[in-house]
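hey so u asked for the seq, here:
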Amino acid sequence: MFNICEYIISAVGKEQYPNQTGLNEYVFLGRSNVGKSSFINALTNQKKLAYTSSKPGKTRFLNFYLIDHRFFIVDAPGYGYAAQSHETRESFKNYVKEYLFNNQNLQVAFLLVDTKVGPTEDDVLMCEFLRSLHLKIVVIATKSDKVGNNLLFARQKAIKEKLNIGENDLIMTSSVKKIGFEKVREMLK
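ran it, structure tokens below
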């Protein structure tokens, strides 16, 4: 478990990134309403580290969180939210791209996918984009408690096939039941 979890800054460009010391970074990406903020709160065992809202699309910047003075978790804006203007979506896309390109500190790109919904076309495009950057990708299937046990295996198989990922690149999680978080924590150093 983590002891010190601090919000540091919401950034839109490299000049604002707080990590000048070369600590490892782990970015969390996913469509709006996939539960990124809830996931980060459950992962860190903090109720209000990342802002959560009942309305999708509230994360508008790259939010940097320093964990135990050892590494950064970065919460990226969600994609695919139609209620945002085209200009806003393009702005998000541009500074997320800037963050991902040639980032020597970035260790893993965690792509969050809703277990019940499965990977959307936006998720497939994001996965392909991350792969084109030669980043280590781990897919986190959120809200796995919302799918009955009978369907869970079929959902896992469908996610792996649609995103073309291996067995070890998918972690099933539930923020409600606290499932899968230990596997993610083991990857954060």
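The first strand starts at residue 5 and ends at 11. The chain has one domain: 5-187.
lmk if thats what u needed
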